[in-house]
Amino acid sequence: MKHQIKQIFHSPKFVVGFIVFVFLLLMAIIYPMVSAVGPLESMSKIKFLAPGTYINVEDTLNAEAGVIELDVVANRVIAALTEDEKTKMVEWLELYGGVEEGSIDIGDAETLINTWNSKYDEDIRVTGTTALRKEYQRLAARVENLLESSGVSIAEKNENGELEIVKSYKTKEFVGVNDIANKINFPLGTDNFGRDVLTELTSAIGTSLRLGLIAGLIATLIGLTFGLVAGYCGGVVDNLITFLTNLFTVIPSFILLVLISYSLGQGSRSVEIVAIVIGLTGWPWTARSVRSQVVSLRNRDHVNLSKLSGHSMPRIIVMDILPYVASYVVMALILQISSGILAEAQLSMLGLGPSTTKMATLGLMMNWSQQASAWQTGAWWSFLPVILSIALVTFSLNLMNTGLDQVFNPQLRDS
């Protein structure tokens, strides 16, 4: 056993897959424990907050400010304008402002605003439709209003009920983020429910791994049992089990999953129930593979010796045959875990996954993102990290399986 473990960890593919898997597992366990918010705790009434650090506005106004010489007006104008409006500004400058085509970078706020201020002239006649001329005029008025911004004043009601300015802020006054008492960081933003995506994601990885493990264990145990019994007994028992296995193989397992999940109803689909359903439909290929190996083992000398010694069938299967297929069983379990995670994601995308408000899975996060049209709104942080997590989990498991196959498969090991 010690020698085999050394061989396993000498496989580069297994080591890489193992490191990735352990990293994801540790992140799924540790991060939700140290996170300041719960995995499904709503933090914002605004859905799809972009990744970043958010600070309390009132604390910002009360913090000590200092003047920094930065062209804040140009940056503020560029931030307020849409990409279409900035494109229109460049278009006007190139057509009527005498600016060389392609010389202005839309992302260079200071250059764009300075060039616009020096070149724009409302008296220059714009050719084209009336709608186009009015569009340029509205854009010029909008830029002018933004440029006229010169500080902010805070007013409060006095004893007579009249507004009185109590504090003013200049455009170039800044406060340090560390001086803000109330701030919160969303490294991956928030989802459509206003929940921290990173905390939700790490918790979902843990839940999906647990679901995959349950489904994988059930599928592997059923497949292993049927494969061992069919391969060893042969005859009528083998024919019956083979018929049952072929029946489940002919009918696509995902169709069975959909039908069973739909028939269970939304209220009955907990994480554990979905895992059991996936496990009950995912065993056939394991059974067939184990059976084929047992058939080649049942007439070995050590097995015949056990038969002559009067040992019972269960003892012969467990003591004389199972150790020879144990390595394959471990590889089958790894693949079943990976298949279980992918099956749950597919079911959840169809709205047939776990029905729970207490925990998230990777599939449920994809479903919530899909329902909120995150693709259309550009909220990539609500679905792209989930897709990458599913890919990394399955990639690490399959890489570990490939590494094990290279260690235990004589043909691959010799080559």
Primary descriptors:
415 residues; mainly alpha; two-stranded antiparallel sheet; 18 helices; 64% helix
Describe this structure in words.
- With 415 residues, this protein is mainly alpha-helical.
- The protein folds into two domains: 2-44 and 192-414, MetI-like (MetI-like fold), CATH 1.10.3720; 72-147.
- Helices cover 64% and strands 6% of the residues.
- The protein has 18 helices and six strands.
- It has helices at 2-8, 12-34, 57-62, 72-80, 83-96, 109-119, 130-147, 197-233, 235-250, 253-264, 271-281, 284-297, 301-308, 313-349, 362-371, 374-377, 384-408, 410-414; strands at residues 52-55, 66-67, 152-157, 163-169, 173-174, 183-186.
- The strands form three sheets. The protein has a two-stranded antiparallel ribbon with strand order 1-6.
- Helix 2 (12-34) packs antiparallel against helix 17, helix 4 (72-80) packs across helix 6 and helix 11 (271-281) packs across helix 14 (313-349).
- The longest helix has 37 residues, at 197-233.
- The two termini are 23 Å apart.
